[in-house]
Structures are given as C-alpha cells and as structure tokens.
Amino acid sequence: MSRAGPILVLVAGLFALWYAAAVPMNIREALTAAERDGAAVQPATAVERRDANALGLVLANPGQIPEAWAQDRPRLPAPHQVAGELWQSVVMEEVEGRRGLVRSGSLSNRGLLLHAWITLSATALGFAIGAVAGIALAIGIVHSKTMEKSVMPWAIVSQTVPIVALAPMIVVVLYSVGLQGLLPKAIISAYLSFFPVVVGMVKGLRAPDAMQTDLMRTWDASGWQVLTRLRLPASLPYLFASLKIAVAAALVGAIVGELPVQGGGLGARMLAGSYYGQTAQIWAALLLAAALAAVLVAAIGAMQRLALRRMGGAA
Amino acid sequence: MSMAILALALWLGLWALNVWLATGPLSDRIWARMAVPLLFGITLLVLWEIAVRALAVPLVILPPPSQIGARFGASLPVLWGDFVQTILRGGLTGYAIGCGAAFLTAIAVDRFVFLQRGLLPLASFMAALPIVGTAPILVMWFGFDWQSKAAVVVVMVFFPMLVNTVAGLAETSAMQRDLMRSWGAGYWQGLVKLRLPAAMPFIFNGLKICTTLALIGAIVAEFFGSPTLGLGFRITTSVGQLALDMVWAAILVAALAGTGFYGLVALIERGVTFWHPSQRG
Predict the structure, then answer these.
(1) ipTM surpasses cut 0.95
(2) CATH label of the domain that carries residue A133
C-alpha cells in the first residue's frame, strides 16, 4: 500500500460520513419544503414531524434524501454545496460580478478573496511583530538571569489567560485612541504567536553545549560574537519548528480579532454568515481559512529547507 | 513630570532588588525564587496605576488596577455566575469529553497501522487549523446554552490531545517492548504496564495545552450567541456599555480560572510522572 492510500481512504470516508450526516440534519426543512410543494410526505403535518426522530423521518421518506442535499439554507450543507459556494464567491464573483476584479479592477467585497487578503495581511503583520518580539525576549532571557526569573513565569501565565477574551476590548480601546484597521488585529495575532517563539528560541539558543561555548571563549569571542556566530545559527531548527506553530496561532488570532469589527476578513464573514443563516458561507470561509493555514505552514517549511540547505545543515 | 521620575525611580529600585534577589546570595532560597516574578508583576501593576493617574487616561480606555480590583470585589456574585456558566459547564464538560475521546482514539490509532497512516497526517493537519471557526456552526446546531460551548471545546481540544497521546504511545524503545514480550505480556498488559506510563509526560503535555484551548473555545463560542450570562457575554456587553472596569474584572476571572486550571493539571502531573527527569530537577 502506498503512503497516500490510507489517507485517501479516510478522506473518502469522511466525505461519505458528511453526506450521510447531512441527510438527517436537513430532513425536516426538506420535508417542509416538499409539503409546501404538494408532495406526499410521511407524517403529513409539521406538528407531527416536530416530535419525530430525524432518522425515522429519513426512513419514512427515502424519496426526499436528494432534497436534503439541495436546501437553500441547510443546517449542514453537503460538500458539493460548499464547493459551489467557494467557486461562486472566489471565482465567479470576481469574473462576472459587478464589483468583481474583471469589471471594476479591484477585488469584490462580496467575494471571499478580498476577505482572505484582509485576514492574511493582519496575520502577516501580527506574525512579524510576534516573531521579532519573541526572538528579542528569548535573547534577553538567555543573557540575563534576572530577566529569565522575572519574565519567564509571566510569559507562561500570559498563555494560560484566554487572550481572545481580550480581543473585542483591544479592538475597541485601540479604536478609541485612533488606531484602526490592521494593527488591533495584528496585536492579537502577535500576542498568540510570540509565546511559541520564545519557548523555542530559548531552547535553541541554549542548544550549543559547554564544549562549544568554551571554544568560543578560547577564541576570545565577545558576547555579541557568541550570539551571532554560534547561538543564532544553532537555534535555527528550533526557530523554524516554533515559527510553524506561531503562524497557525497568528491566523487564529486574526480571525478572532475580526469578530468584533465589521471591517471585513474571514472572521467577519463567518459572523455575518451566522447572523443570516448562510451556513454554506460559513463553511466556505472556514475552508478558505484552513487552506490559508496550510499554505502559511508550508511556506515556513519551504523557508526552513532553504535556510538549512544554505547553511549546509542536515535537512 | 514628577510622576515620571517617581515611576522611573520605582522601576529602577524594584529591578535592582530583583537583580539582587535573582543573582545574589539568597538566590537558592525557595521564597526568593517565588518573590522574583511576583515583584516583577507588582512593578508592572504599580507602573500601570501611576501611568493611568499621571496621564489622566480616561476610564473608557484603560481603568487603573485599583478600580478593577474594586469592581471585581463589588460584583462577585455576577462574576461567579459567569464563571459557573462558562468555565464549569461549557469549558470543563467539553474538556473532559474532548480529551477522553482523543485518548480512546489515540489508543485505536496506536493499535491499527491503517489508522496510523491515514488518520495521523489528517490529525496533525487539523491541529494547525483555525478550529475556532467552527464556533458559529456549532452554536447554530446545539443552541445558545452551554451545550454548544462544550461542543466547540470538544472540537478544539481533540486534535492536539490526539497528536500528543499518539506521540507518547510511540515513546518506548524496541528493547523495552521486547522485554515485555519475553515476559509473556499480551498487547493490553504491555499497554497498561509499560506504554501508558511511559506516555504520561506527553499526555500531560497535551492536557496542559488543552486547558487554555478549552477556555478560549468556551469564551469565543459565546461571542456567537449565549444566554444572558457567561464570561464572553459579560465582556461583549460591557464593552458595548463602555464599562471597561467590568470587562477587566471578567478578564481577571478568565485569567485566574486559566491559571488555576493549568496549575491543577500541572500538580496532578507532578504526582503521576514523579519519575520523569523534568519533575525531579
């Protein structure tokens, strides 16, 4: 069996499960619609159906199963409906829509691409802030015992605090002092992404053993030289491992940060979908966010391979 | 101006004290080790208080810590209700179900090579995804009460816990497993007596990561709809009323709950994995 075999089988199984689950989830709405169109459905009135078991309803009306996969506002949209929504909001909206890329020259605010771009830019800015702050803090912690003892416990405590609880307030407070747009979201992203970087970098900067630091000392290397020539290069594998975690966390931060502001982005798109019962829209935004996460992690992985190869490392 | 000098003097003084405590002759004492981060925290709080008063920052932007403390003390019953709703009902229920399900799945994954090859790459992919995004969907399915919050927490903690437990179950060496087999131990005996104990550090690592995720999930799910209590509800409505001291009081509750939850799991870990090098240092 090849390596991809089991994964494909399981993914196919997941899709089958998804289709199967969509039937009992949507059967009530499907039956109501069918009754309105004059079709004969098994318990004939809505009152009788209200207390009936969803599975029993499916078994009593097997003819309505295709209807359950084609609802306008399903409780659980079938995969092809989500795919259709994705195609519609990513491609068709830009090609044919009045505000789309082809006709107006800019991304449509009704399409997903613009929202994905907003989320991506907040993620990138927050990730950059978080990574730089994390590396700086790690260098400070490695060089100052006092700093390690005072800051490290608080860095740990800061992560046990559910930061997203702060998200709406950070956004509102920064808005009131005149900051809006990307920065408030980026700060939430940065907060979530700095901790993995600190932990990974502290470990990485301490990776050179006593023999190597002693050798540096026999060459009369200054603290700065030890840092740039020995510690930083040695920490790169650790840095990249934690950057992968950090970039995923930054994306979560950006999405959560978009919930309280209606300025666009995938998070705002999900919230709008949940307000108006547009489930397919929520799923489409969710899948695009997942794709974004996968691309970001893969990009860090590519950087890692490139950097380690340039250094003649073992990767 | 004088306030700035006072703040600077205070910062330098407390930092010097901290340097002395951390590197001086007393640095080996337990109380000194505890005092260093505590002093650092107090320094930050005092500076916050001074800065807010000196710069006359309006209350709707940043209330001073003293006022947050007063508000916290004055609205204990309300905050206790929120705590029970969000943390105990939503968070803890979801945490128990999610971690338990992930543990059982991990044992199944470990038993069957097929699942290992198929499910594991999917799980490590899912663990990196923004799963909070499922919150609006789950709130739609399970209603506004705590059940939907527990459902969000289940989905959020499942994959990190699964990945950690599977990694832990792979921790024993071939030599150790061979030894168990030479003693005639079956699969289950090998699992219970050798591999599960060896996996405990990893399992607790997953449990600790999941404590934070559980609170995040429970609070974020409340942004998408909740009954009229709960920490997420309190935060969003108080932001709307510009009652920032109440927001900070709710955040304080979340912070205390998060730290306490994490500390509790860490304490249990110390009892269970007393043999591990990281616990003996």
Answers:
(1) no
(2) 1.10.3720.10
The whole-angstrom distance between B196's CA and the closest CA on chain A is 26
Residue located via tokens 């943390």:
B87
Per-residue model confidence (pLDDT) at position A130: 92
Q: Which residues from chain B sit within 8 angstroms of residue A271, using beta carbons?
A: 136, 223-224
A225 lies in a domain? yes
**Contact (CB<8Å) B37/A161:** no
Would an 8 Å CB–CB cutoff place B259 in contact with chain A? yes
List own/partner pairs for A59-67 with CB under 8 A and 24 or more apart: A61/A27, A61/A31, A61/A34, A64/A27, A64/A30, A64/A31, A64/A34, A64/A39, A65/A23, A67/A30, A67/A33, A67/A34
Same domain, A245 and A142: yes
- pTM of the predicted structure, to 2 decimals: 0.78
The verdict on residue A178 lying in a domain is: yes
Out of B122, B141, B254, the one facing A161 most closely (by C-beta) is: B254
Q: Which of A27, A55, A76 is the last residue of a domain?
A: A76
- What are A131-177's pLDDT values in tens digits? 999 999 888 888 887 777 777 777 777 776 666 666 767 777 777 77
In which domain, by residue range, is A15 found? 4-76
Closest of B224, B209, B221 to residue B258, by C-alpha: B209
- The more confident residue out of B128 and B115 is B115
The nearest CA of chain A is from the CA of B38 a distance in Å of 8
Of B125, B219, B225, the CB nearest to A294: B125
CATH ID of B72-280, from 1.10.3720.10, 3.40.1000.20, 3.40.50.300, 3.50.50.60: 1.10.3720.10
Query: How many Cβ atoms from other residues are within 10 Å of residue B232's Cβ?
Result: 27
In a domain, A315, yes or no: no
What's the confidence (pLDDT) of residue A162?
A: 66
Q: Mean pLDDT: which of A93-107, A118-132, A261-275, B69-83 is highest?
A: A118-132
Last residue of a domain, one of A32, A48, A76: A76
Residues 183..242 of A with a Cβ closer than 8 Å to B: which?
none
* B24 shares contact with chain A (CB less than 8 Å): no
| Residue B131 falls in which region: left (phi positive, over 0), alpha (psi -120 to 50) or beta | alpha
Closest CB to A165: pick one of B36, B235, B262. Answer: B235
As given in the structure block, the two tokens for residue B213 are 């995720």
A10 and B137 within 8 Å at the Cβ level: the answer is no
> What total number of domains does chain A contain?
2
